[in-house]
Predict the 3D structure of the following.
Amino acid sequence: MICRFCHIYYNCDFGSIVDIAIEKRPTITLDQATQTIHIPLVDNKGRVTSKLINYKFNGQYFEKIKS
């Protein structure tokens, strides 16, 4: 069964990315070759960092990859 209501998103302080060109702003991406989701890390003040949180599909669900 496919979930039509499942979404992945993150909240951040828009001021932390407003000066970055739209095409270069950190976004949630899926690498289909490695079945890995990459999500930008947001700090406790809402600022987007250059780090990513990565989850890899194990055949049943996504598991966080320890960095």
